[in-house]
Amino acid sequence: MDLSTVIKERRSVRRYSDKTVNFEQIARLVDSARWAPTAANLQAWEFQVTVDPKKIDAIRSIAPGISRTSRAIVVISVDREKARRKGGAGGEMLGLLDACFAAENMLLTAHDLGLGACVVRSFHQGAAARLFGNPEHIVPELLVTIGYPEGGQTRGPRRRSLRELIHLEKWGNPVPGRFLAQFEETSDGAAPAAGVDLDAALPVAGEGREPAGEADRPPAATGDEGPAAEGEKLARLRETLIKHLCYLVSSARGLSWEPREYGPFRLIDACGRLIGIMEEYGLKSPRLAAARDLIEEKKLAVMDDPETFNQAIDQVLDILVGEL
Ligand SMILES: Cc1cc2nc3c(=O)[nH]c(=O)nc-3n(C[C@H](O)[C@H](O)[C@H](O)COP(=O)(O)O)c2cc1C
Q1: Which of 147, 174, 195 lies at the terminal end of a domain, its last residue?
Q2: Residue 273: pLDDT over 50
Q3: Which CATH number goes with the domain that contains 20?
Q4: Does residue 15's CB lie within 6 angstroms of at least one atom of ligand 1?
C-alpha cells in the first residue's frame, strides 16, 4: 500500500475477530516503532507484548479505554531514568512524545499488514506496571490493542478540512483555494459518507453486554449444579466482580484528567456491564434486559446530546426501580 493510502485509510479499530495474530506480525509492528523519530535520540522506550487472553482480560479491567478484547496488546513504556538522564528536566515529556510517534508507526504498519489497532491512554498506569512486573522507572504510557478487524473497514470520525486548519504565514490567513481543491475530497471524504460511527469516535469503555471477564465466561446457570460446580461458579463470580471493581476504580482515577463527559459515560457503561454480569450468572429479567438495551443504545449520546442521555438515564432508573 502506498504511504498516503495507509495514512488516510487507517482508523482506530476496536472490534476484533477471533483470528489470532502471530508473533512475527507483532515483531514487525514493534520493529517499525523503533524507527520512529526520538527526541535527542533518547530511545527510552520499551515494548511489552502480551498475547495471553487471561492477561489481556486483566489489562482490560484496568483500562476503561479498551472497549473490547483484542488478540494482542503492546504496552509502550518509557524508561524514566534514562529519559531524565539523557533528556534533562524535560526528559519525561520527551519520552512520552517519543512513545506517541512510536505508536503511530505501529498503527500504520498494522493497517498495512491488514491488521487493526487502537492506541489507548485511558488506563491505570500503576496497575499496568504491576501486571507486567515493571521496575519502578519503567512506566507504561500507551497501550496498543491489536487484532484482525471484525466486520470490514472501520469507519471513523470526520477530520476537519484542510481549508479550515491551514494558515499561510499569518494566523487566519487562508491558503488560496486552488491549492486546496485537490484535498477537498480526501480530507473530508476519507471519513464516512453517511453519519459518524460514534463508537469508533470515542475512546470508550466496553459494551454493557460483554461481561468484564469475557475470556473466562462462565456457563449459564442451570439451577441444578452440585456443590463443587457451585463453588467453582462462586470463584468465577468473585474474579469477574474483582475485574469489574478494577474497572470502576481505574475509571474513577481517570476522571481527574479525562474529558468531563466521560464521567457519566463510565458510570452508565459500568451499569451496563454489571447487568451483563448478572445475566451471565442467571439473574435475568425482562426489565434488566430492557435497561441494558437502553443503556447500550443511548450511552454515547452523552457526547453530543446530553438531553437524550439524561432522559434515557431517567428511563433506566424507572425500569430498575420497578424491579424492587
Ligand atoms: C493520545 C491518544 C489517546 C487515545 N486513547 C484512546 C482510548 O483510551 N481508547 C480508545 O478507544 N481510543 C483512544 N484513542 C483513539 C482516538 O479515539 C482516535 O484516534 C480518534 O477518535 C480518531 O479516530 P481514528 O483513529 O479512527 O481516525 C486515543 C488516541 C490518541 C491519539
Answers
A1: 147
A2: yes
A3: 3.40.109.10
A4: no
